[in-house]
Design goal:
Layout lengths: L3 E2 L10 H9 L11 H14 L3 E5 L2 H12 L5 E5 L3 H4 L4 H4 L4 E5 L8 H7 L10 E7 L12 H13 L3 E5 L3 H8 L3 H5 L4 E5 L10 E5 L1 H13 L8 H14 L3 H15 L16 E5 L7 H10 L2 E2 L1 E3 L3 E5 L6 H16 L1
Parallel strand pairs: 1-10, 3-4, 3-5, 5-6, 6-7
Antiparallel strand pairs: 2-8, 7-8, 9-12, 11-12
This protein binds pyridoxal-5'-phosphate.
Pyridoxal-5'-phosphate (PLP) binds next to helix 3.
């Protein structure tokens, strides 16, 4: 039985067009700013984000870290949500490498509460760290790929700017958010000071992320990237599939969202699992397995044995993510296997 891999959209493989673009891209040494494919890609990425400039970075994590290091200096405070990728998954780099103080707030369905943010931004006092940056994340990974609504996004940006904080958007999946909200990406990015997006999630590139902002910010970001060891040589091999992604892969994310909905609806009556359909807005489905009486690990193992690979989100959830390798028939087969495995 061929396993169905619903672990993540990071499991996507490059398309044939991407492999072709990699093989034929004109290349040069990017640390001398001489890779024409990188130059072309960064201009295209900036255009998509509605910013003056953009920088190709090896990973989303590094792009977030660079952004924070440009916005703030050691001892400064970063306001973010406790479940954000930066706070939860980035190995404490904001503290250990950037020397920043996190002020972590609760996440409500992937959204920060403007009143809680306002209360967290203290007035200036010589005893306090200086609050410099508000981080937003959209779509919000740990809440199940939820979309931060545009009005909430605008309100949070306005609030931060009124209090003289910069706003960094972790937009690893910002194209999923824009497609789901039915607005251009720039409706979100125009309100922030810097944005990161990943080429490696639903967009299917083998590696690479982008940091986009003003020309001056990106110039400083380039220096920090090199300081972190992220200077690149013939990076056209990363940028070439990135161009294919921006030109051809963003629109199709709606298919992944439709498949996630089909999956969620299919699992609605799966034994031992509970899925809240209202939370399924993009390409992720979180299922609560408490009804099964099993541990998260036992559930993921049982599903793997039944030919469906998912991620555990202990203590009581599993995460299933759709991507371009799944069609409706694959999703229906996954639902059948999961129901059988959980029923038996
Ligand atoms: C994947 C992800 C990142 C980090 O990207 P990497 O390229 O894996 O370092 C950052 N933020 C969010 C929300 C992500 O999902």
């Amino acid at each position: 039985m061929h396993p169905i891999n619903l672990r993540s959209d990071t499991q996507t493989l490059p398309t044939a067009a991407m492999l072709d673009a990699i093989a034929t891209a004109p290349l040069g040494d990017d640390t001398y700013d001489e890779d024409p494919t990188v130059t072309r890609f960064e201009a295209l990425a900036a255009q998509h984000m509605g910013t003056e400039a953009a920088l190709l970075v090896p990973s989303g994590h590094m792009a977030n870290l660079i952004a924070l290091m440009v916005h703030a200096k050691p001892g400064d405070e970063v306001v973010l949500d406790v479940d954000s990728h930066i706070h939860y998954y980035e190995v404490g780099s904001l503290a250990s490498i950037a020397g920043l103080m996190p002020w972590a707030l609760p996440s409500h369905d992937g959204c920060l509460d403007p009143d809680e943010v306002a209360a967290a931004i203290r007035g200036r006092d010589l005893h306090y760290p200086h609050p410099r940056v508000l981080c937003l994340e959209n779509t919000h990974n740990r809440s199940g790929g939820r979309v931060v609504p545009l009005d909430r996004h605008r309100a949070l940006c306005q609030l931060a700017h009124d209090r003289e904080l910069a706003v960094h958007l972790d937009g690893a999946r910002i194209f999923n958010a824009a497609v789901a909200a039915g607005v251009p990406v720039t409706d979100y990015t125009q309100h922030v000071d810097s944005v990161m997006f990943c080429l490696t999630k639903g967009l299917s590139c083998p590696l690479g992320s982008v940091l986009a902002s003003s020309r001056d910010f990106i110039h400083r970001a380039d220096e920090v990237r090199r300081r972190l060891g992220g200077g690149l040589r013939q990076a056209g091999i990363i940028a070439a599939p990135g161009i294919v992604a921006l030109e051809h892969m963003t629109g199709r994310l709606a298919e992944d969202h439709a498949h996630a909905r089909r999956l969620a609806e299919g699992l609605a009556d799966a034994p031992g699992l509970a899925v809240d359909l209202a939370t399924v807005e993009t390409n992720m489905v979180y299922a609560d397995h408490r009804g099964s009486g099993m541990s998260t690990e036992a559930v993921t193992q049982r599903l793997a044995q039944a030919g469906v690979v998912v991620s555990g989100r202990p203590p009581h959830q599993i995460r299933l993510v759709t991507n371009r390798h799944h069609d409706a028939a694959t999703i229906d087969e996954a639902v059948r296997r999961i129901k059988t495995a959980m029923g038996g």
